[in-house]
Amino acid sequence: MDDMNLQQLWVVKVGGAVLEDKDTLACFLDNFEILPGLKILVHGGGRSATRLSEKLNIKSRMIEGRRITDADTLAVVTMVYGGQVNKQTVAALQKRGCNSIGLTGADLNLIRANKRAVTDIDYGFVGDITEVNSTALDLLLKNGITPVIAPLTHDGEGQLLNTNADSMASAIAIAMATVYSVSLIYCFEKAGVLSNPDDDTSVISIFTSASYRLLKEKGTIHSGMIPKIDNSFNALRKGVKEVIITNASGMNMNSGTHISL
Amino acid sequence: MDDMNLQQLWVVKVGGAVLEDKDTLACFLDNFEILPGLKILVHGGGRSATRLSEKLNIKSRMIEGRRITDADTLAVVTMVYGGQVNKQTVAALQKRGCNSIGLTGADLNLIRANKRAVTDIDYGFVGDITEVNSTALDLLLKNGITPVIAPLTHDGEGQLLNTNADSMASAIAIAMATVYSVSLIYCFEKAGVLSNPDDDTSVISIFTSASYRLLKEKGTIHSGMIPKIDNSFNALRKGVKEVIITNASGMNMNSGTHISL
User: Fold this and answer.
1) What is the ipTM of this complex?
2) For B75, which residue in chain A has the nearest alpha carbon?
3) Which residue of A55, A88, A143 is in closest CB contact with B160?
4) Closest C-alpha among A36, A45, A154, A144 to residue A89
5) In 3-state terms, what secondary structure has residue B76?
6) pLDDT digits (tens, 9 = 90+) for A159-189
7) Which residues fall within 8 angstroms of residue A45, CB to CB, at 6 or more apart?
8) pTM strictly above 0.90
9) Do A140 and A101 contact (CB within 8 A), yes or no?
10) B165-176 and B225-237 helices cross at what angle (nearest 10)?
11) Chain B residue closest to A160 (CA)?
12) Residue B100, φ and ψ in degrees, nearest 5
């Protein structure tokens, strides 16, 4: 595929911690708004869901960064991700003159998923993505609209499903790569992938599969970072032009970690 | 304006009580889905917001059917109306093959409002509608998409505002009446406007401003019904073709109460 003929599209995933600090969020939204051209925002919101669960005496259970989602927890994440975080973000982008629309995978039948099969673990109402409706996203983009997507999908049978936001961003980037030249940005609280987790200046500029093997063996890269990087390599293998892991202030500065196959 | 040349559009408002009973909701959604042609759904969701507020120890205060909305209550209604009720309804419509999209007034800058001025009463984060973006709604409708709208607006400065769903439906119907032949349906738990509130068979088929004066004086019509009927007359005066008040099962049967100037 010749990327030169395709229009640039940014797919930006922003993590929970960035969304929760008011100043960091404002910094992120300012930088997101000035990204030139077409863009899609995918957001998480994990910690606020945990806080609401606590207030409602619903136990939060996580396994390898994935939330076990019983019916009560699904209601909580639908309210927090699909309602509070999504709509506040849209209102904040409208203030900045960015004409956005808040969506879940159910809206416009955007992202279909299968409820994860029960093996040793029953994840509950958790969805594994089967299909991204790139035509619907394209319709919005072509009309100057910026989709803001919450990490919820549906099964087409009326059931909403909790879905990992990193995986959603990667799946959307891959689906859109057939019609756009796609840059996928994972924006989180760190400046990039760090060679020393305690030193925020130890950002690895270019991160290859060789670096990955090494740092995984050393235990430097673990838990939530592993699916993020797996999603990054997967996106690159499936036609996404570039993947960058960075923080709110680094987004427009060509800083952070560039993932390379 | 010659209605003969305009395409039919249904604007249906469904109330909280209909949404909360599983069977009634399924009946409503089945009937909504088979309405022929273009349609917009506006929903409330008041009682579930009250229930979540209770669980979170947030006091619900209502004055003349309007919820006093402090910051905590705004978070609750954003979660319940914009998240839970809205996204579940969208997923249920997708199951029925109705390609819907869940929205608030902030999405696509759809509905702007001013925070209500403080007089004797401080309603808090409550919005009075100033503008409906009919162009954005038209874009969705022309692409075969059914908007499902939660009763939240924004002020353009990043602030979401709680807004009465009956007023939203009326304002949307009026805005769309310039380009469509609009029927506005208020769907709630009763079969229509009743001449005897205790007798569900006492539906008034045609309700005029003369009937209104009479029944208001007698006290038969009061509280939440008054803004609904005021909104109905206002819609008719401003170009909406017809206004019908009915229940879930009456929606496709030409039953219920037809409001007439």
Assistant:
1) 0.94
2) A84
3) A88
4) A45
5) helix
6) 999 999 999 999 999 999 999 999 999 999 8
7) A16, A19, A77, A80, A81, A84, A85, A150, A151, A165
8) yes
9) yes
10) 10
11) B91
12) -110, 165
